[in-house]
Amino acid sequence: MPENLKILVVEDDDALRDALLVTLEAAGHQPTGAAGGYQALAALAADRYSMVVSDLRMAPMDGLQLLAEIRGRYPGLPVLLMTAFGDVNRAVEAMRGGACDFMLKPFEPKALLDQIGRYAVAPHADGVVAADPATNAVLLLASRVARTDATVLLTGESGTGKEVFARYIHDQSPRRNGPFVAINCAAIPDNLLEATLFGHEKGAFTGAQGAQAGKFEQADHGTLLLDEISEMPLGLQAKLLRVLQEREVERVGGKRPTAIDIRVLATSNRDMSAEVAAGRFREDLFYRLNVFPLHIPALRERPGDILPLAEHLLAIHATRLGLGRRLALSAAAKARIAASSWPGNVRELENALQRAAIMATGEVIESDQLALGGPAPLAVPGFSSPSPPPPPAALQTAETPAAMRDLERQHILETLAKVGGSRKKAVQLLGISERTLRYKLAQYRAEGLVDEA
Length: 453
Description:
Blueprint: E1 6-10, H1 14-26, E2 30-34, H2 37-46, E3 51-55, H3 63-73, E4 79-83, H4 88-96, E5 101-104, H5 109-119, H6 133-146, E6 152-155, H7 162-171, E7 180-184, H8 190-198, E8 199-200, E9 212-213, H9 215-218, E10 223-227, H10 234-246, E11 248-249, E12 258-259, E13 263-268, H11 272-277, H12 283-289, E14 292-295, H13 306-320, E15 328-329, H14 331-339, H15 345-359, E16 364-365, E17 383-384, H16 401-418, H17 423-430, H18 434-446, E18 451-452
Parallel strand pairs: 1-2, 1-3, 3-4, 4-5, 6-13, 6-14, 7-10, 10-13, 15-16
Antiparallel strand pairs: 8-9, 11-12, 17-18
Helix pairs in contact: 2-3, 6-7, 13-15, 16-17
């Protein structure tokens, strides 16, 4: 069971409340006591908790009323109710109202700790910011499925943070000490994807100078994330299905399968049911992956996350840029960020904050320093807006990964412009698959670097 969880204990009996607090502290948790429902709501408004343990019979606000308030304000927060034998009917009513469970008094300390280990939301992993109730609800589901070995299909728009939640599931799982291996199925050319996933033996194809383990073998005893699984070619989907069914993988050019012990997570920014209906994704593979669906809301659907995320990302980029000072957002800047719809989701927000950190001259970022629309994109047939201005000479370092990505984007868009926007002609000149081109363009749109006309 994870330790150091923040648990709110709501009990109007002082002696029992103190005993519960001592039990939780001895188990390594951080409990806080509340003498009633109104005091509990005040504590929840002031801090974040992993779980609430509350008595059912209290006055003036009883446990059922408190439960209803918590469900309305913090839908993802688990609530465990304590009750006497005579209140069992009300406890059943509480379960219908959203309580995770109830315990009959008196109970042993171990029974309480077991319930906390079963239901409490584990501490947030690095990179997970969950200030909005909608995100907390997703995090609760992620925390629960993390304890199992079930395959999870994470869906949501580009840039919502699906990989962050996938890493959270791995970090909270029994496989946390094993490897976490991620592969973007859309970013690897079709002819290399099979060997990348399953590995290859020496001489399996031109250029295979030696044997190489694939991503499945690399993830043994850990977690494999198949990012943008909907972009995988149909032919490879059949082979993936067999691997998931048999739990063994055969390298390209190999003669014998290798058993693997992995947990598989997958993500997609598409409507998978529609992909199946259109014949672009195998129905049997979809059901194999969709054991536990987890939808990540768009940033506009979880507005409570926007400012906490902005401050979190700003601190990260101030450190990465080596600014040597802490950056803060002015009230006007916060208002402007909160009012934006963020069609590119967290990725767009991160880009805006990174640009603001680069351009910052002091410790406070003002509203007019936020280029929320991003740099002006290159003009391409089918895409609107002029070419971006060149960066300052001090930033023109072609050796940096960011600059290389800029050059790649410029080359792709200029090639598209040269062929009148024809993707079929563009991929022939670029030497990449149409699927990879589609992925790149979707990425540029999500980052606000091109606007599709």
